[in-house]
Amino acid sequence: MKAALQQNKKYTILIWVFSIAIPFVVAVLFSVRIPGVERMGFLPPIYATINGITAIILVTAVYHIRKGNRKTHELLMKTAIGLSVLFLVLYMIYHMTSDSTLYEGEGVLRYIYYFVLITHILLSIVVIPFVLITFIRAISGQFYKHRKIARYAYPLWLYVAVSGVIVYLMISPYY
Q: From the record, what ranges are coiled-coil (predicted)?
């Protein structure tokens, strides 16, 4: 029992370190430019597609767990985490080779775009510890605790994935 508590404490510390470090590193890397590398304008549709696939996988994973297909759910969730990591890597490569694109839309669409963008960014930071805690609880067999936090992690993560696609679709004419 004591070993399990120490293990949980270790995971909790690592989760918070990652949850703070990831947004910090992303923010710092926004100011880094890879010298001699051309703008990688082909990346945004790729990482937007990854967001879309992640959203589909999340919905499918919830469907499978509700049907009692734990192994399929686990595989889908690991895939969603892997896709999220791949998204982050491609996103950072793009921003280390390219300047940010400004949204040039007008009127109400401009407000919608910035609302979706800002909530997407903020929730993409907030969701990190939720996803990591949910994942650790699942792989450590703490399914009651896993379900408890997954109720919050799932809609946050799904919103981040879907809103990422919406942001891309709204800004893509201005690339």
A: none
- Alpha-carbon gap, residue 78 to 2, rounded angstroms: 28
Number of domains in the chain: 1
Match 């990854």 to its residue by tokens.
50
Crossing angle (nearest 10°) for helices 143-171 and 108-139:
150
Q: What is the DSSP letter of 41?
A: T
Count CB-CB contacts under 10 A for residue 12: 14
With 0.70 as the threshold, say if the pTM is over it: yes
Q: What's the domain range around 56? A: 41-174
Type of residue numbered 102: L
Residue whose entry in the numeric block shows the structure tokens 């270790």: 10
Q: Per the domain annotation, does 3 fall within a domain?
A: no
- 21 in a domain, yes or no? no
DSSP 98: S
Q: Confirm whether 84 is domain-assigned.
A: yes
Measured CA to CA, the distance from residue 135 to residue 6 in angstroms comes to 18
Residue 36 covered by a domain = no
